[in-house]
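Progress note, sequence design subtask.
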């Protein structure tokens, strides 16, 4: 078994060189969704054609979860590329993974609700926005049927319950509050009586990686708890494909365009196998608007433990 890890986002020709080097073996291509909008449409088409040709001699498995990569501004392009991938695969070889086996039932239910809420919102948008449909430029694309195929329903596959997901709602983005919550969460998880090690905990965030002060805050907290080679890992949401930890702390800053919010939140929460705590906060000197909190409550109520920090 050869495992090839592709770090970052390589140039198309470099990526093709890697693919050309994989000869005389079966191929499992995981998280192909990360490449949906990385290259031009013609390059993506060439890539899909190359993968389909491999199937003449060797088996090729491709996993793709559009929900983990969807961006509103690139929505039509992402859907076009996903549809092109589906077009090239014989119908009897297509399979929707409709059961979640990664997470406990509680986290899986939360992910299911986010996914359903997002799919419903996107279907309504596509049906109402003629310009959006025009950008798709796919004559054979049928809504909402194909949209549901690209974003299939995913149910919990486990009956095992874990700790309830915790949702901390901060009305502002004060760093002192964020530090206090993070430290309390880590102290509880890494208590001397706990069997959880530092390496069992991941901290995931996105926008704070573009903010020096927030990044320094997280690095300082992690450094204080460093134990030789056993350390807490932290990474950006867009870089956490395939990563997973027993416990995950999510730092989720509300973006300026709320429509791109749910896929990022979905991806970050899905990295937690058993325990997940999410900090929802706004930018410094701005307030979390009530409408956003109201919408959030629609799909977390009754599932997550809500902690409102006034």
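Output:
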């Amino acid at each position: 078994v050869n495992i090839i890890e592709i770090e970052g986002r390589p140039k198309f020709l470099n990526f093709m060189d890697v693919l050309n080097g994989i000869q005389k073996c079966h191929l499992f291509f995981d998280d192909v969704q990360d490449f949906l909008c990385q290259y031009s449409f013609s390059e993506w088409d060439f890539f899909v054609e190359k993968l389909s040709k491999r199937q003449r001699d060797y088996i090729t498995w491709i996993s793709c979860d559009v929900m983990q990569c969807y961006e509103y501004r690139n929505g039509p392009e992402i859907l076009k590329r996903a549809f092109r991938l589906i077009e090239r695969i014989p119908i009897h070889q297509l399979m929707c993974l409709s059961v979640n086996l990664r997470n406990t039932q509680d986290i899986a239910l939360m992910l299911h609700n986010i996914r359903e809420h997002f799919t419903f919102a996107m279907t309504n948008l596509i049906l109402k926005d003629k310009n959006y449909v025009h950008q798709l430029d796919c004559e054979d694309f049928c809504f909402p049927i194909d949209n549901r195929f690209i974003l299939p329903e995913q149910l919990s596959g486990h009956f095992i319950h874990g700790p309830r997901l915790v949702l901390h709602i901060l009305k502002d983005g004060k760093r002192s509050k964020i530090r206090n919550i993070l430290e309390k969460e880590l102290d509880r998880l890494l208590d001397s009586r706990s069997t959880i090690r530092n390496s069992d905990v991941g901290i995931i965030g996105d926008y704070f990686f573009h903010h020096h002060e927030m990044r320094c805050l997280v690095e300082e907290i992690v450094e204080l708890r460093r134990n030789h080679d056993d350390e807490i890992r932290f990474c950006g949401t867009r870089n956490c494909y395939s990563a997973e930890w027993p416990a995950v702390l999510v730092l989720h800053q509300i973006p300026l365009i709320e429509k791109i919010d749910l896929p990022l939140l979905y991806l970050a929460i899905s990295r937690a196998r058993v325990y997940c705590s999410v900090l929802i906060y706004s930018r410094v000197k701005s307030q979390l608007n009530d409408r956003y909190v109201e919408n959030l409550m629609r799909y977390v109520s009754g599932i997550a433990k809500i902690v409102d920090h006034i």
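The first strand starts at residue 27 and ends at 29. Work on this subtask will continue into the next period as scheduled.
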